Amino acid sequence: MPSYTQVFVVPPVKMLFLPSRVEALVGSTLTLPLQVKGQATPTDEPLPFQDCSRLMLDVSSTGQSVFNVTSHDSHLMHLPIGACTTLKAIALSPGYTRLTVTYKYKEILLHATVTIAAYLPLRPVDPEVIAVVTLGSSKNFVFEGGPDPWILDQSKFAEKCKYRITGKFGERFNLAFWQGSPN
Question: Which end of the chain, C or N, has fewer beta carbons within 10 A?
Fold first, then answer.
């Protein structure tokens, strides 16, 4: 019994960034998966390309001092599901950048845009290292750095955090902070 597969070589019709992490600590790298879809006939549903390494993509950003975007990476072994390439963005300084990828060939013009952010590490300001309090008293902690409210949806930003005390009364203990419930 013969077996076969169909291979379609079609022009791209749609391009978008897939959901991924879009905030990075200064000095770290974001990997942004890009999906490009093609369509065999106008009535067919567009399907994602498995490899788009030959597409000539133009990458531009609004804040070039915030991120350094390297060329796209199409190593098939390391691509997220649904992506045909990824872009690497190295966080250089705190702020936001709107990253746009453009594909243009003859009458085809496609764009994909994503907003990415870089932030400084969260660090304690007051107290810097240690706080000593008596039973029944309280101490406010002041921090600086960390992610800013998301520029596109500030409603999900949380300024309060939960804590867990490790250690016993009268002994040295640590506070572990997190947003939401710990896992």
Answer: N
